[in-house]
């Protein structure tokens, strides 16, 4: 295993350790708005105390990203429309639908107060509303333009500005793929503790970089998590780490947690970041060794597809996606096609690690093409 021990002076915002290992990432980094390339390489800091992984951004990067994520262009992007094919349901379902299926059995009140931090257009709260019509649903986001896209119903409440201005008393606070985008994590955790009722629940879902190394490559995130790092962080702030029993989000961390008395400052070590970087390096080498005669596509229009495109460049012909919202559009300036238009000799890369063989099996049954798992 490749371990880089270079230590530099940056303070960990969680445990205040002053020595962080510097990790270089020699791959393109993408912005999560549209997965275009933001930088050609990246740097991370790994806290040797609580193990937090920081994406190192310059002040110029931060200012540029702040402007983008508070813009109308961002508010108008449709990023919550991704669908999942899950055995239990006949039709494709959304991430929000599955999240409410997981969370609602743990709620004790039929009319809970729910806060979604990083609510975007309120899609998750809308799914709660269809199953819990008596709930009071609060959405918080830093982009005030999102107010225009947020449901206009009497039990829906949009909040912008400071979290500190929101009155407390929530049965549930949700953070779906948003915790990595909040710069001041200690303040966030302090506010969550204040906002929750004593027995209130906190739901966090975020990419697991052990299972999905491509998520290291999000240029605009402040942190990366593995289950161990998430557990260390939650316990540091006095929460108990309880992974949700689920297999719908195999490449994410999904936890439902509640306050658990005093904070714990004993941390478990986690060096998975080095394995994840090695996985990316190996994938890049395999991609560059692909024989050149067939058309090459990649499955998916998120970080994993962007990574394959950033390595193959002009050799990648386009993207394959089953989501009707993506077909016929451009992703990273290339065409997105439905797999039923693939030709027999087209090569399709499935870059989803341990999930790839199952996807390959289903695609080979339904569509033409030569499928390659990575
Ligand atoms: Zn730390």
Q: Indicate the low-confidence ranges by residue numbers.
A: none
* Count of alpha and pi helical runs: 9
The biggest beta sheet is recorded as: 6 strands, mixed
Mean pLDDT: 93
Provide the domain count. 3
Elements, N to C (H/E) = EEEEEEHHEEHEHEEEHEEHEHEHEEEEHE
| Name of the level-1 CATH class of the largest domain | Alpha Beta
Note the beta-strand portion.
15-25%
CATH homologous superfamily placement of the largest domain? Vaccinia Virus protein VP39
Counting helices, strands and paired strands, the structural category is alpha/beta
Strand order of the biggest β-sheet: 11-10-9-12-13-15
How many whole angstroms does the radius of gyration measure? Answer: 21 Å
Distance between the termini: 20 Å
Annotated CATH architecture of the largest domain: 3-Layer(aba) Sandwich
User: Got a strand count?
Assistant: 21
Task: Report the bound ligands by name, code or SMILES.
Answer: zinc ion
Shape field: globular
CATH T-level topology of the largest domain:
Rossmann fold
Helix proportion range: 10-25%
SSE layout and pairing:
Blueprint: E1 7-9, E2 19-25, E3 29-30, E4 37-39, E5 42-47, E6 53-55, H1 59-69, H2 72-75, E7 83-84, E8 93-94, H3 95-103, E9 113-117, H4 123-131, E10 136-140, E11 156-159, E12 170-176, H5 185-195, E13 196-207, E14 223-224, H6 227-236, E15 252-257, H7 272-288, E16 296-299, H8 303-312, E17 316-320, E18 330-331, E19 334-337, E20 347-350, H9 356-366, E21 370-373
Parallel strand pairs: 9-10, 9-12, 10-11, 12-13, 16-17, 16-20, 17-19, 20-21
Antiparallel strand pairs: 1-2, 2-5, 3-4, 5-6, 6-14, 7-8, 13-15, 18-19
Helix pairs in contact: 3-4
The protein binds zinc ion (ZN).
Zinc ion binds near residues 15, 17, 47 and 49.
């Amino acid at each position: 295993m490749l371990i880089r021990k270079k230590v530099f002076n940056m303070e960990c915002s969680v445990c205040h350790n002053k020595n962080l290992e510097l990790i270089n990432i020699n791959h393109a980094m993408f912005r999560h708005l549209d997965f275009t390339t933001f930088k050609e390489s990246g740097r991370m800091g790994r806290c040797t105390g609580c193990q937090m992984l920081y994406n190192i951004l310059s002040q110029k990067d931060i200012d540029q990203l702040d402007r983008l994520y508070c813009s109308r262009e961002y508010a108008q992007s449709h990023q919550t429309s991704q669908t999942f094919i899950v055995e239990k349901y006949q039709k494709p379902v959304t991430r929000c639908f599955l999240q409410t299926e997981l969370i609602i059995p743990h709620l004790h009140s039929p009319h809970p107060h729910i806060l979604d931090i990083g609510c975007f257009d309120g899609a998750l709260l809308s799914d709660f509303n269809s199953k819990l019509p008596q709930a009071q649903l609060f959405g918080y986001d830093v982009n005030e333009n999102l107010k225009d896209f947020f449901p206009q119903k009497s039990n829906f409440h949009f909040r912008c500005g400071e979290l500190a201005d929101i009155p407390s008393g929530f049965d549930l606070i949700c953070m779906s793929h948003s915790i990595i985008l909040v710069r001041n994590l200690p303040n966030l955790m302090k506010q969550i503790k204040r906002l929750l009722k004593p027995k209130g629940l906190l739901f966090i879902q975020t990419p697991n970089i052990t299972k999905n190394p491509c998520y290291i490559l999000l240029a605009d995130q402040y942190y990366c998590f593995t289950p161990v790092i998430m557990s260390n962080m939650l316990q540091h702030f006095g929460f108990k780490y309880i992974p949700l029993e689920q297999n719908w989000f195999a490449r994410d961390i999904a936890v439902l947690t509640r306050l658990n008395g005093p904070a714990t400052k004993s941390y478990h070590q986690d060096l998975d970041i080095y394995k994840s970087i090695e996985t990316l390096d190996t994938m890049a080498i395999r991609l560059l060794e692909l024989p050149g005669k067939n058309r090459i596509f990649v499955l998916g229009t998120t970080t994993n597809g962007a990574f394959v495109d950033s390595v193959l460049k002009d050799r990648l012909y386009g993207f394959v996606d089953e989501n009707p919202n993506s077909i016929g559009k451009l992703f990273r300036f290339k065409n997105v096609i439905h797999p039923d238009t693939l030709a027999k000799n087209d090569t399709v890369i499935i870059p989803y690690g341990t999930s790839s063989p199952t996807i390959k099996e289903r695609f080979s049954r339904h569509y033409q093409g030569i499928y390659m798992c990575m």
